[in-house]
Design goal:
This protein has helices at residues 3-18, 76-93, 113-116, 119-123, 141-161; strands spanning 95-101, 128-133, 169-173, 190-196. It has 203 residues and is α+β, with helices and mostly antiparallel strands. The chain has a domain at 90-196: OmpA-like domain (60s Ribosomal Protein L30, Chain: A). The protein has a 4-stranded mixed β-sheet.
Length: 203
Amino acid sequence: MTTKTRVLLVASLALAGSSAGAVDVRQVVIPDSVGVAVEPAHQAHVLGEAIRDSQVKRTPTIWIISEPSRTRALMPEEEARLDAIDAEAAEEARHVRTTLLFGFDKSSPSDWAALDSTIAEAVRAGSVVKLVGHADDVGSDTYNQRLSENRAIAVARYLIKRGVSKKNIKVAGRGKRDPVSIVDSSMNRRVEVDIVKAAGKTL
């Protein structure tokens, strides 16, 4: 071995010895679904994200159970509730309601058209016509009570002239009680018409 070769060999060994503590910088890709345990002494040598989710992510299983439809007997309380709903619907079907509006301090409505469309039901045998007059809040209670009654009476006379039996008409006045609007007083000057048809008769 020549002197030159010996010098190169010694230098190489010295360089290798001085770098014995160097860190291996090769990177290893670790799947997110795999947990990795690193010894504390080597944690500083690990190259990677500061935070890694090392737990396996699992999606909860959702069970869907399908069952064919089937019939069953109603419980007594269910049957009673359905009977009550049917009875309420049947009773509501017997009523034909409309409203006539009046001008300020007037006892005749602005338009009879809403009432004319219900005359056929009003003259039918067994029908009862309920007329309830109302007034706005201008004036005394006594005056408005009388005005509301006069409005209902005017509607009753109109119905009688068109063939409705007088004995089948009921008239009442509510004065300025029971307003339907606190913004538009013209909506309170009204007669509410409720034609109640005989049981078992519908439109």
